[in-house]
Structure formats: C-alpha cells, structure tokens
Amino acid sequence: MNGAQWVVHALRAQGVKTVFGYPGGAIMPVYDALYDGGVEHLLCRHEQAR
C-alpha cells in the first residue's frame, strides 16, 4: 500500500464519502487512489473560472 492509498484508507475509516479539491501535479496519485477507493470527488473552481 502506498501513501495515497493510506490517505484514502484513513478517509474511508472516518466515513468520508465525498472530497472537494482541485487536481494536478503532485496530488494526482491521491486522485487515482480516490477513484480506486470509491470516494467521490467534486471539482472546486476559482470564482473567476468560467
């Protein structure tokens, strides 16, 4: 199990079903683990984003 999988495991253990965030760069392994672990992700956007 890698670090990203441990993060998702800890989230699931706390009953987290949905996370909010902005993917990119170094966080991508966590997003892969979220997908594999069945945790829903909702994309956040900056207020000026269209």
UniProtKB/TrEMBL annotation:
Q: Which Gene3D superfamilies match?
A: 3.40.50.970
From the UniProt annotation, give the residues forming the signal peptide: none
GO molecular-function term, one example from the UniProt record: acetolactate synthase activity
- Enzyme class, top EC level, equals transferase
* Domain of life from the UniProt record: Bacteria
This entry's Enzyme Commission designation comes to 2.2.1.6
InterPro entries found in the cross-reference section: THDP-binding, Thiamin_PyroP_enz_TPP-bd_dom, TPP_enz
Start and end residues of each Thiamine pyrophosphate enzyme N-terminal TPP-binding domain: 1-49
Annotated Gene Ontology cellular component terms:
acetolactate synthase complex
Keywords assigned by UniProt? Transferase
GO BP term, example: L-valine biosynthetic process
Give the family this protein belongs to, as stated in its UniProt record: Belongs to the TPP enzyme family.
Recorded hits in PANTHER family, A to Z, give: ACETOLACTATE SYNTHASE, THIAMINE PYROPHOSPHATE ENZYMES
The name on file for this protein is Acetolactate synthase large subunit
Recorded source organism is Salmonella enterica subsp. arizonae
